[in-house]
Amino acid sequence: xxxxxxxxxxxxxxxxxxxxxxxxxxxxxxxxxxxxxxxxxxxxxxxxxxxxxxxxxxxxxxxxxxxxxxxxxxxxxxxxxxxxxxxxxxxxxxxxxxxxxxxxxxxxxxxxxxxxxxxxxxxxxxxxxxxxxxxxxxxxxxxxxxxxxxxxxxxxxxxxxxxxxxxxxxxxxxxxxxxxxxxxxxxxxxxxxxxxxxxxxxxxxxxxxxxxxxxxxxxxxx
Length: 222
Prior knowledge:
Blueprint: E1 2-8, H1 13-27, E2 31-35, E3 48-56, E4 59-60, H2 62-70, H3 72-76, E5 80-85, H4 101-108, E6 112-116, H5 127-136, H6 146-161, H7 177-193, H8 198-221
Parallel strand pairs: 1-2, 1-3, 3-5, 5-6
Antiparallel strand pairs: 3-4
Helix pairs in contact: 1-6, 4-7
């Protein structure tokens, strides 16, 4: 089992998360390459990909976005795990997900996407960044949850080694039709990677449900 761990990082904090994920995977007997996105030419030889990015002004960094565009077809052919790093000062919320989250999850058919706290260090910020940080009143802090990150890496290893992978997270219900559409698109993309007919599967499940409803109604009338 060989896994690529790659993350776009502006000041090194997200790259350090990638290093930790790679290190934990190696302790789980997984062969790992940790590389910056721009150094990856092709995904041949990798059984899975862990892709991350720092989040600035609500968006993934350009190298991570370009990585997805460049390797879109290859990513759909293998398990993909996504992570974002950026929020500080409070535990990450659903609203902390980057603007690209829905599109990237749908494009890659990602198994999971986690948002981790980030690090803001005054010594590494440029003048404009300091102005932005001051405007949004973000604290200078290191909120990267190392134990949580390590546990997630172990979950990935278990997923990849299991006959019937069980890694899952509880998703909140979609709040809009657009969000529902993104979720459905992600399911269709994931089905295609396995060669499944998502529409046929849905029709069959509806047929079974209708049969169960009719059977229940019949038993009540007896």
